[in-house]
Amino acid sequence: MNTQTPGRVIVTGGGSGLGAAIVEAIRDAGGTPFAFDRDISNVAGAKSLEVDVSNREAVETAVKEAAETLGGLDGVVTAAGIDRCGKLGDVPAEEWEKVIGVNLMGTVSVVRAALPYLKESRGRAITIASTLGLRALPDATAYCASKFGVIGFSRALAAETGGVIGVTTIIPGGMKTHFFDDRDEQYKPQDDSKLNDPANVAQAVVFALSQPFGSEVRELLICPAEEGSWP
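The structure corresponding to this sequence follows.
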């Protein structure tokens, strides 16, 4: 793996928000991003595939196609994520489980499918968690469960694959994206000026991807100065 550039990298959720910022940052740093998203209509300057990451078989097929197209993989970034706010008894079970399916199981499926290619290149898996993977809030049981799970999965994976691949967990605070658009008003940030630019988080992802083999950045927490969900 080239230690100065991010290399060939799959980015889930690469069609919008943080994922799109990561695709752009990887490209600007001299890497080759490949975006996965359910909506790839806005992806520009990168190859892309329409993928629902909660569908394990679809993920396995897409990862294989991306790896063959790129001639291998140097990294994956699991930025795809959704949320369903509300009290446990009020959120329909299928919607609650969908959050786990995308945020946690989607992360696991992508990393698992990419693992043989990452082992070959001594590449890196960058998982995207959240400050709500460290701190629990009411009306966020699905999201917190998924992101606590991402952190636990990533730490165990790092212990399991040390010296074989790199594993970094990025823990972002609130960002200025469309992530909050479909929420009820009570669950939206009250002041957008206190949210972080996703481009800042994307630069942290590129930093982690570009580390030389054997040097590990295990976790990075990136939040705006007045972050309300941390500590």
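The mean pLDDT is 92.
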